[in-house]
Specification:
This protein is α+β, with helices and mostly antiparallel strands. Helix content is about 30%, strand content about 20%.
Length: about 240
């Protein structure tokens, strides 16, 4: 029996489809088995949903041994005014905007004062949890503790600050953003006072902006970059 798909469910499913497309377009290739993906998609097209779900992409339970190395000097973030979240990432610069930005984040982005930020190379494949551990120099994997530290140390961005970096990069000022299909990550606060991660990557059609939960278990390639607000350490 056919079912109408609308609202949040429609946005969630289309967001998943866009994410599959993003993974397939990654410069270093699709990180999983493409033949398995093809088979699963065909099953979904034909309404067969009884496959055994595979184990998620492996996540280390040990503290990361990686060291994050800063790229270049500090980037100065300008003061930004309060702005509705639904109005962020709406300009012609953007080719795709994840619907979860409005669902997961607070309805308003607060005003921010000028502050510095640093850009770090991952050095190896890392999850968001492992990136946070390296930034904070802690071994805990407890999401609540990591969130508290990231917020207390003001390592999180407001969306207009990310917009300002993208706009400056597009106008010819190199602020350190990758613009060659590799993405840039930013910690942000969501509406549950937790921390999510904004993914911003430039494609042929403009900038794609997605948001992920901090505990999303995927390991990101070493060529991605992590922006950290109010960090001036050359090495983390």
């Amino acid at each position: 029996m056919a079912a109408q798909v609308a609202g949040d469910l429609y946005e969630s499913i289309t967001g998943q489809l866009f994410e599959l497309g993003r993974q397939l377009r990654q410069p270093n290739g699709y990180p999983f088995n493409p033949e398995e993906l093809k088979a699963y998609l065909q099953d979904a097209i034909e309404g067969r949903f009884n496959r055994v779900v595979p184990e998620p992409h492996s996540v280390s339970t040990a503290p990361p041994a990686a060291v994050l190395n800063r790229i270049g000097g500090l980037v100065q973030l300008p003061a930004t005014a309060e702005k509705k979240t639904e109005d962020c990432f709406r300009e012609n610069l953007y080719g795709y905007r994840d619907g979860n930005i409005d669902r997961w984040l607070s309805t308003k982005q607060g005003a921010e004062v000028p502050s510095p930020a640093s850009i770090y190379a991952l050095g190896q494949e890392l999850t968001f949890i492992e990136m946070a551990q390296a930034v904070l120099k802690v071994s805990t994997r407890d999401v609540g503790e990591l969130v508290s530290f990231l917020v207390e140390r003001n390592h999180v961005f407001a969306l207009p600050q990310i917009e300002s970096l993208i706009e400056r990069q597009e106008k010819g000022t190199n602020v350190g953003l990758r613009t060659d299909s590799w993405a840039n990550f930013f910690f942000v606060i969501d509406k549950n006072d937790l921390v999510s991660v904004v993914f911003a990557g430039r494609r042929d059609g403009g900038w794609d902006v997605d948001v992920y939960r901090l505990d999303y278990g995927y390991r990101w390639d070493a060529d991605y970059r992590l922006f950290v607000r109010n960090s001036d350490a050359a090495t983390l």
